[in-house]
Write a structure and sequence with these properties.
462 residues; mainly beta; 7-stranded mixed sheet; 5-stranded mixed sheet; globular; disordered N terminus
Length: 462
């Protein structure tokens, strides 16, 4: 065993010991109530035990599919790291990740081991309404030698108490076979992201990342925007007071990356040299172009976060993408002419992005879950064709779909990462963080029906 491997095992053993101690506290809070610090943790026990969770997640591993050509040779490891020789048929890349266990019993959710998806399940909460996420660590199928703890850290969440923060040095981490329920009450609308905070450089890059957003309290009211237009909105990005962030459709756009060395190393009990990091693949909603244009697979769309699975507990793949079952979220954007579309961007890759939309201006209405309006109600929103943002940042932008040209089929506009090294993934005219906006006629037989859930478009798996 190498000295570097001994160091990693020592670090994980140390984290394990701390996680077990903290998890024992958390378990006590969930079932019997700790007698620690004068019972200060007992309010968490009461909160976590009086109703079921809104969303159930499991932390585990799995495999995803990325373009197999060209193969990637690692100079430091001395092997071809992509495609991975251990990968099952149709898959290329090992990941750590989360899987949606909503609607599955606490016993049966262990059948989701090795069925992690990337990016992690999209979810949303409502301002001022308590939301609960149950996380169970079901272990790693490919790496039974590891006993990594997992957490859910809601990145950028304000007013959180440390007990539910997910940062393991200040809260708790969840060892294999254990369950913990996080309780949130959101006060700030906007777009966020979440990730595992245990060994976060590794776990974040390996795929334990996802997008989460908070709907404003203003949702459900009716506001005319612009005044005198006769157009009323009931869905909003923020509590604007005037309807200026009203929208007809919304789409999550989550940016992440894959470095072949690190994913291969975790599958083969090796260590990558993190100072050699590079983004071999740049993903948008867990896929690369042109697979970003395929419909959704099994995603939550009925308000309960329950997703469709087959008899083997696998997600249903999207039409045209039989190997994308663990990458269910489409990045295709569809709208009718004249509609306002909210795009929620979040980046948990390690590289800066420059997302550019050709032919349609984007109005930035929020950044890092903060409404673009000052204390004196002075508007600070602006129009642009390129969003430049780094790791851990988010944008909320609204676009208005232009008139349809009158031709056959939808008009198409390209949304892509202007950082060209992350736009093609070494493949000519393919791969990378790129998608399209499809604009349909406002009326007539080809016009789209109203959107029922985020990222919905024609052709989705039921």
């Amino acid at each position: 065993m190498s000295d570097r491997r001994r160091l990693l095992l020592s670090r994980r053993d140390l984290l394990k010991a701390g996680g077990l101690t903290a998890a024992a506290i958390g378990a006590g809070a969930a079932v019997g109530g700790p007698r620690l610090l004068g019972g200060l943790l007992q309010p968490a026990r009461a909160l976590a035990a009086d109703r079921p969770p809104d969303l159930k997640l499991v932390g585990t591993d799995g495999w995803i599919s990325l373009p197999p050509d060209p193969p990637i040779f690692s100079q430091s490891l001395g092997v071809y790291t992509h495609p991975d020789s251990y990968a099952p048929d149709g898959r290329t890349t090992y990941i750590f990740g989360f899987a949606n266990a909503s609607g599955i019993s606490d016993v049966d959710q262990f059948n989701l081991k090795n069925k992690a998806q990337h990016n992690a399940p999209l979810f949303w909460a409502r301002e001022g309404v308590e939301f609960r996420v149950q996380l169970t660590n079901v272990g790693l199928a490919q790496r039974p030698d590891l006993f990594d703890e997992h957490t859910v850290h809601w990145h950028g969440f304000k007013n959180v108490i440390p007990f539910f923060d997910g940062e393991p040095t200040g809260s708790i981490s969840i060892p294999q076979g254990q369950t913990f329920t996080y309780v949130y009450k959101s006060h700030d609308p906007g777009t966020y992201m979440y990730h595992c905070h245990v060994e976060d450089t590794e776990h974040v890059h390996m795929g334990m990342t996802g997008l989460v957003f908070v709907r404003p309290a203003q949702d459900g009211t009716s506001k005319e925007y612009p005044l005198g237009s006769g157009k009323h909105y009931t869905k909003f990005a923020y509590n604007d007071g005037d309807g200026s962030t009203g929208f007809d459709r919304e789409y999550a756009m989550f940016l992440s990356e894959v470095w072949g060395d690190s994913h291969w190393a975790d599958a083969h009990i090796q260590l990558p040299e993190w100072s050699d990091y590079r983004a071999d693949f740049s993903l948008l909603n867990g896929r690369v172009y042109p697979e970003t244009l395929l419909p959704n697979g099994s995603i939550a769309h009925n308000g309960t976060f329950v997703v469709a699975r087959d008899a083997n507990y696998d997600l249903l793949p999207p039409p045209g993408g039989p190997d994308l079952g663990n990458q269910p979220l489409s990045a295709l954007i569809s709208a009718n002419a004249g509609e306002r579309v909210l795009l929620r961007f979040a980046n948990l890759g390690f590289m800066e992005a420059a997302m550019t939309l050709a032919g349609i201006k984007m109005r930035v209405v929020g950044r890092d879950a903060t409404f673009m309006r000052g204390r004196t109600n002075f508007g600070t929103s602006y129009e642009t064709d390129t969003l430049s943002f780094g790791a851990g940042e988010s944008f909320d932008v609204i676009i208005q779909a232009p008139p349809h040209s009158g031709g056959v089929g939808p008009d198409k506009y390209v949304l892509y990462n202007r950082a060209y090294t992350r736009g093609d993934n070494l493949v000519a005219d393919g791969g990378g963080q790129r998608t399209e906006i499809h604009v349909y006629p406002a009326t007539g037989p080809t016009a789209l029906p109203p959107q029922q859930y985020p990222n919905q478009h024609p052709g989705d798996v039921a």
